[in-house]
Amino acid sequence: MSEHPDYNAQRADYGSAQGETLGAWVASVAEGSPAWAAGIEPGMRIDEVNGIVPHDVIDWRWYADGGACDLVVFDPRDQTENECTLEREPGEDWGIDFTDVLFDGIRTCVNACKFCFMRMLPDDARASLTLRDDDYRLSFLQGNFVTLTNVTDEDVDRIIEMGLEPMNVSLHAVSPEVRRHLIGPHAQRGMEVLERLCEAGIEVHGQVVLCAGLNDGEELRRTLDWVEARPQITSIALVPMGYTKYSKEFSRSYSEDPEASRAVVRLLEPYQERARRELGITRFQVSDEFYVDADLPVPAAEHYDGYPQFYDGIGMLRSFLDEARDVCEAEGERLADLRDALETLGRRTDRGGETLIVCGEAAASTIQVFCEAWSGGRARVWPIRNDYYGGDVNVTGLIVSCDLLAQLPQDLSGDVVVLPSVMFNFDRVTLDGDTQDHILEVIRERGGLPVVCEPSPGKMADALAEALS
Q: What angle do CA 87, 161, 143 make, to 5 degrees?
């Protein structure tokens, strides 16, 4: 079976909702590791690494590189600091996991982007959703896109010295006046930093959030020309601006304009052709939404250059379709057994029963292809309309509990309900604050069998097999 990207990258609210505690707090220690041998335990805090106070896990990896390291460790049980030395064999890990990758807190955004999704949330959204992070370290560590507008000269030196690449950078536009209008008064700082990173040879993945009438058309051409002249930007993604019913700036986007979506796809084609001819990669990418909105087929997998921007919605549909093909070809016998098990489950109730694959409206037609390929009509897509956010929000990662429970049938007797794990954060909480446990309880009360899994063909098949065994 071919390798496919991680669908958990689709999580809209990937972080924990728990409070932040500053410092390099130890979450776990591997038994038998150098840290375990030195007596380090979960709940302790690493205050120094070889004489340096670590600000993040990058510092930890950098300054603890080598066969030995001297630590100052704080023990909150007796409020003491103790020194110890860790030693390891070549290739051995120190055995420490931290509660967070940032030890000194997250850097917040200094911009006023017109298209910022955080400005389009309901008033009662929880605090973790309204935190506008713009931290270059999360670009390197977690793939977040950052504008670089709050990066200092010292930060730039660090990125270059430590080789923190690839950096994921939100570009949006290159003309100073357009950038100021879109991003705010600090916009030019981002360009200055990006130019310096490119000059230093740091690899960059870029992003343009496309807003009709603001940074499309000729401004988009200028942006693409600028990128084309800088080979350090190895990929650039165009994603359509999304809006909610709470937006004060926008009430339309590309989702309501197929011709405009097709125009964006066509505009990129000569850039893509030149990149493939000269560099052997497509490089210039448009997100899946553009193909869906334009009613165009998604390109073949080779178009996506190994999916470097999968987390930005580039190639998710193609990856799903290819994995569906692989699963159906390689696991036909197991899928037949699943189909038989679903039929048996359905016969236990008067109303029959089927498998409902929950997803956002944007992915419905793609997932239906997989359902039709193996289930014999026993599985079908159950797209959830996003009334909570409204606007043109239609992706799976933004499904909320109130919409889900309102739109699922009240009688689920004999039904299997497959929920996408990406609708929950890592505390298993939805964007509207409901818990996974409560949602599963409601589905069971309605007579259904709930299953939670990644929204990929292989994971769906695995989860259904386990639930029906």
A: 85
